[in-house]
């Protein structure tokens, strides 16, 4: 189950290892990255739909390599795999941690991120994707720069500009973006991993404050944090992952 840079890396590694696998996309973007594996697109239809899919396709192992904020899919995978007795591992990136020079404020959710923005009009890089943008309409006084995979059909914010781009991103590119748009605040999700970390390094260099949204909590499950860890788990059984929730 993909939709992330990490899932695409894993797909390549599975092909190279000669594994038989199918890649699953939710179907959120118009032109998803082509995968070297057979690919299916679209929701399964909740836990019951996923259970039926797993059964009818003779799936023995499920790797949840979805984004850490795709908690609905993760919960469904846990429930479906538990019910079907199918091995499941989460391929989960390590969360980002603040280092010297970082000016981060951690918040529990998107609503709290809105609250953490100043009242006085400012220029915000809203790097949270296209979902939940409307929550920021509670602070319409800000100029918002969004980075989206697809051109938006319309934006729920009165003063917003969309930059259409797909990660992974570079520090130089994100430095240029922050400077060009005179960004004074960044709002981002604590996704972890490398593909989206460039904006945080650029923020550090420019001393731009970052409001970082914590990951949603999901039930405990086996997790690994590298491609090698997934392959090891596949080859050596279901207990190779660390049992933990986030
Ligand atoms: P979500 O809220 O956890 O999932 C909502 C529903 O979308 C799921 O119940 C499932 O539908 C379907 N779904 C999600 N991921 C799927 C997958 N890989 N294959 C098939 N169906 C999937 O998920 P989301 O946050 O909307 O994320 C959707 C996709 O975008 C995921 O693939 C995720 O990796 C990617 N993504 C998300 C974020 C983010 O910030 N949330 C960022 C980058 C990429 P059914 O119940 O019908 O099965």
Outline the fold blueprint.
Elements lengths: L4 H12 L6 E3 L13 E3 L4 H11 L4 E4 L6 H14 L2 E5 L12 E4 L2 H7 L6 E5 L15 E6 L11 E5 L6 H10 L4 E5 L8 H9 L3 E4 L7 E4 L2 H10 L5 E3 L2
Parallel strand pairs: 1-2, 3-4, 4-11, 5-10, 6-7, 6-9, 7-8, 9-10
Antiparallel strand pairs: 11-12
Helix pairs in contact: 2-3, 5-6
Bound molecules: NADP nicotinamide-adenine-dinucleotide phosphate.
So what's the overall shape? elongated
What's the number of domains?
Answer: 2
Low-confidence stretches: none
Distance between the termini: 18 Å
**How many individual helices?**
7
What's the arrangement of strands in the largest beta sheet? Answer: 5-10-9-6-7-8
Q: What is the CATH class name of the largest domain?
A: Alpha Beta
Order of helices and strands: HEEHEHEEHEEEHEHEEHE
* Major sheet description: 6 strands, parallel
Which range best describes the helical content: under 10%, 10-25%, 25-40%, 40-55%, 55-70% or over 70%?
A: 25-40%
Mean pLDDT across residues: 94
The structural class is alpha/beta
CATH topology of the largest domain: Rossmann fold
Q: Any guess at the CATH architecture of the largest domain?
A: 3-Layer(aba) Sandwich
Count of beta strands: 12
Radius of gyration: 19 Å
What percent of residues are in strands?
A: 15-25%
Q: What ions, cofactors and ligands are bound?
A: NADP nicotinamide-adenine-dinucleotide phosphate
Describe the structure.
This protein is an alpha/beta fold and 246 residues long. It folds into 2 domains: 5-94 and 217-244, 3-Layer(aba) Sandwich (Rossmann fold), CATH 3.40.50; 104-213, NAD(P)-binding Rossmann-like Domain (Rossmann fold, 3-Layer(aba) Sandwich), CATH 3.40.50. 30% of the residues lie in helices and 21% in strands. It has 7 helices and 12 strands. It has helices spanning 5-16, 46-56, 71-84, 110-116, 171-180, 198-206, 227-236; strands at residues 23-25, 39-41, 61-64, 87-91, 104-107, 123-127, 143-148, 160-164, 185-189, 210-213, 221-224, 242-244. The strands form 3 sheets. The chain has a 6-stranded parallel sheet with strand order 5-10-9-6-7-8. A 4-stranded mixed sheet has the order 3-4-11-12. Helix 2 packs across helix 3 (71-84). The chain is elongated. The mean pLDDT is 94.
């Amino acid at each position: 189950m993909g939709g992330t840079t990490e899932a695409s890396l894993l797909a390549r590694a599975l092909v190279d290892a000669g594994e038989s696998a199918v890649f699953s996309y939710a179907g959120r973007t118009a032109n998803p990255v082509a995968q070297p594996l057979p690919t299916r697109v679209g929701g399964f239809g909740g836990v019951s739909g996923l259970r039926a899919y797993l059964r009818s396709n003779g799936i023995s192992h499920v790797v949840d390599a979805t984004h850490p904020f795709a908690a609905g899919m993760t919960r469904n995978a846990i429930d479906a795999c538990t019910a079907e007795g199918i091995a499941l591992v989460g391929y989960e990136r390590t969360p980002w941690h603040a280092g010297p020079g970082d000016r981060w404020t951690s918040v529990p959710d998107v609503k709290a991120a809105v609250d953490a923005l100043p009242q006085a009009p400012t220029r915000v890089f809203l790097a949270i994707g296209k979902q939940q943008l409307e929550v920021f309409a509670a602070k319409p006084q800000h100029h918002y720069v969004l980075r989206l995979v697809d051109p938006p059909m319309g934006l729920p914010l009165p003063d917003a500009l969309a930059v259409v781009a797909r990660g992974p991103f570079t520090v130089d590119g994100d430095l240029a973006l922050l400077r060009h748009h005179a960004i004074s605040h960044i709002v981002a999700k604590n996704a972890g991993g490398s593909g989206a970390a460039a904006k945080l390094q650029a923020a550090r260099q420019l001393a731009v404050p970052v409001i970082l949204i914590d990951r949603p909590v999901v039930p405990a499950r086996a997790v690994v944090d590298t491609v090698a860890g997934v392959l090891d788990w596949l080859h050596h059984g279901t207990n190779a992952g660390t049992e933990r929730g986030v």
